[in-house]
Design a protein that fits this description.
Chains A, B: Pfam families: PFK (PF00365). Chains A, B: The active site is at residue 141. Chains A, B: Substrate binds at residues 139-141, 187-189, 244, 297-300. Chains A, B: This is Pyrophosphate--fructose 6-phosphate 1-phosphotransferase. The structure is a homodimer of 422-residue chains. The first copy, chain A, has 422 residues and is an alpha/beta fold. Chain A has two domains: 5-151 and 303-359, Rossmann fold (3-Layer(aba) Sandwich); 153-301, 3-Layer(aba) Sandwich (Rossmann fold), CATH 3.40.50.460. Chain A is built from twelve helices and eleven strands. The first copy, chain A, has a five-stranded mixed sheet with strand order 3-2-1-4-5, with helices on both faces. Chain A has a four-stranded parallel sheet with strand order 7-8-6-9, sandwiched between helices. The first copy, chain A, starts with a strand and ends in a 39-residue tail after the last helix. In chain A, 61% of the residues are buried. Residues 258-271 of chain A have low confidence and may be disordered. At the A-B interface, α6, α9, β9 and α10 of A face α6, α9, β9 and α10 of B.
Chain lengths: 422, 422
């Protein structure tokens, strides 16, 4: 690797453990004597030359990132256009790298980020500026290919399984006279990984969740209602997990659907998500009393209940990213390779970004039960290790987790202002 | 106390720690050699003579109740009518008590339950059947009078403060390009205790939550929007906590309001709660990108993050209830008395049910800041001790909490069938 600095940027939706990756990057770089700059608010900070000097942070605060949710340097939703469409932005990145002697670019995100890191590597070569670009995996949606799983997912999976188990104990104890159908909506967009993980809450017949609605399946109201009714009659209550990405036969998200969708006073659709739409359907057709929950950001920021293995993997990909760059690797991603299901064993390997960028890993068909409402033994074998272990944050005397806030000292700018495209 | 058995019944909405109270009752009674029956599904089980013999449960399972959320014997929402309106039900209770030699009735609930326990005590006396009736406090809404606080509340308070802190870290890191306004809806109905507890998440100016909407105040859309805008402009984002019980100037819950209320395709109001209504308002009037969360039952069943002090108090009121009955006390409730704010000290005392039944404790005016959007130092002094300490449940090898399920062995019936009034 050429000498110089590392630039680390967080991208897209943050997670309970993305800062653990940042800790892996910074601590490993410090050990090697390499300074790390971080981009403020992700790639936008790199384009705007808004850089943070992490060498100014105390050791304890960097260590504290291992147990602090959110994105410590800020993240953003901003996808660079293609090289042909907006070459200026790629060239600007190289200009910023040159100005600050950045020789390693670590981009911590999902598919899009892998693609960007790949392109930046290419434009660097084209412009004769040597920069090692490493994509560092992060996405709660677990939809990256090649890697066995994605840091961030395991903790949401654990949160969701625990939430389903706990809330179902509540519902079960009240079902005689109160709520009979409980619906919880989970994230994951087009992939049902998080919804599937909810299935880990149950071990035997009759255990919640009783119905999982995957985005991979078209929603069938009649089959759904029949299963709700059968479950209430048999078990006494019914816990439903619905992925936010579930669509109806019309190809629209449940909440958008003209037939079932909720609308606010201004006529906006998609106000309430899928859960309230299902709740209304249950009430209308079956008359059961319902409750529904939509944990939203709570599920992906719940560092207090993160999976230990997820924290470890998040840290490991950050550490390996620095080592790969130091060893001269370019346009690769440290991916998680599973070497054994039980006992669960894993290692990190380098995989080319070309194979990862812009692909999406959907759930295999054989992970969903035949009726489409549950998970199979194969799914369980894959998912179970990912929620293992507890790694609670330290708590203060006030009963609240001690999350760190960095100083985020700005690096003085050297270049002219640049306004990123919208 | 007359010899005989204890009947223990859970009432109303369950909590993360109501089973800890059950453990306190059963373990204390076992020490004294008193058998405990539990009513299946609360007072309905007592009326239907559906009783559970807790002496059949293993010691480890009873101990496990200390860390298991929900209601282990089932609870119900069923309020006995007045003695005049339905004397038959009170007489039925005494008949069931007589048949099974029940000489102590422990009713674990809120205001209504205190009232019922009080009335059962009176009808017992009128019918010449000696039974010691003790109301045992439980309500996440924290709205019982006399007692300093209610078991169940502290854990929801802790959950809510942590959720606000964690989700706000997420929002803060994405606000540059994504969500600027995050709204979380909390329980509590007519009392703003849970909403107020969210205020513990922040310690200094600018910390989230930035706006708390209490049910004690009439919702003022203009003032709310102005504060949202000012916060986004100053802090970069805005976290809003809204109590489910907030009402507009028309006296209706936000979600019911004709002006702002969400309606589903069937025209039903109150589908989505207050949070999505506020979100729509923010989008319509200010154009900010928003997200909202509605944890619903997750907040009151989250035993994994219960406050240690809450678990201890829940256990203590169960223990004291048995001791009071054993000492011959009748028509009382073990209440929590605070003897010191800092360090926090408390004890349990007996208070007459007459003083507690059917009263509701609202938040004092001086707990809300002048602008109505935050909490005061007085509120902080009261709330802070209630979320102290962590008491995580044991976890299994599968990464999930080990919650116990009781056998709940039925006691053979001795009486004719009785159908409770609807």
């Amino acid at each position: 690797m050429a000498a110089g600095k590392i630039l680390y940027a967080q991208s897209g939706g943050v997670s309970a453990v993305i800062n653990a990756t940042a800790a892996g990057v910074i601590e490993t770089a410090r050990d090697k004597g390499i300074p790390v700059y971080a981009a403020r608010n992700g790639i936008l900070g790199a384009l705007r030359e808004e850089l943070i000097d992490t060498t100014k942070e105390a050791k304890a605060n960097i260590a504290g990132l291992k147990h602090t949710p959110g994105g410590a340097f800020g993240s953003c939703r901003y996808k660079l256009k293609s090289l042909e469409q907006n070459r200026a932005e790629y060239e600007r990145l190289i200009e910023v790298f040159k100005a600050h002697d950045i020789r390693t670019f670590l981009y911590n995100g999902g598919n899009d980020s892998a693609d960007t890191a790949n392109k930046v590597s290419k434009i660097g070569q084209a412009l004769g500026y040597e920069v090692n670009c490493i994509g560092v995996p992060k996405t709660i949606d677990n939809d990256l290919v090649v890697t066995d799983n994605c840091p961030g997912f395991g903790s949401v999976a654990k949160y969701t399984a625990i939430a389903v188990r706990e809330a179902s104990l509540d519902v079960a104890s009240m079902a005689d006279t109160s709520t009979k159908v409980f619906i919880i909506e989970v994230m994951g967009r087009h992939a049902g990984w998080i919804a599937a993980a909810a299935g880990l809450a149950g071990n035997k017949a009759g255990d919640p969740p009783h119905i999982i609605l995957f985005p991979e399946n078209v929603f069938d109201p009649a089959a759904f209602l029949a299963r709700v009714q059968a479950t209430v009659e048999k078990v006494g209550y019914c816990t439903v997990v619905v992925s936010e990405g579930v669509k109806g036969a019309d190809g629209k998200f449940l909440a958008e659907s003209a037939e079932t969708g909720a609308r606010d006073a201004f006529g906006h659709a998609q106000l309430g998500g899928a859960a309230p739409v299902l709740a209304a359907l249950v009430k209308e057709k079956l008359g059961y009393k319902y409750h529904w929950a939509l944990p939203d950001y709570l599920q992906r920021s719940a560092r207090h209940i993160a999976a230990k293995v997820d924290v470890e993997q998040a840290y490991a990909v950050g550490k390996k990213a620095v080592e790969y760059a130091h060893d001269g690797l370019n346009a690769v991603m440290p991916v998680i390779v599973r070497t054994s299901d039980e006992p669960y064993k894993w290692k990190i390997e380098a995989a080319p970004l070309d194979k990862i960028a812009n692909h999406e890993k959907k759930m295999p068909k054989n992970f969903m039960s035949k009726d489409g409402f549950g998970i199979t033994a194969a799914a369980r074998r894959y998912l179970a290790p990912l929620i293992l272990g507890e790694a609670p944050p330290p708590y203060g005397d006030d009963g609240l987790p001690l999350y760190v806030t960095l100083k985020n000292t700005a690096v003085p700018k050297k270049l002219k202002k640049f306004v990123p495209a919208k």
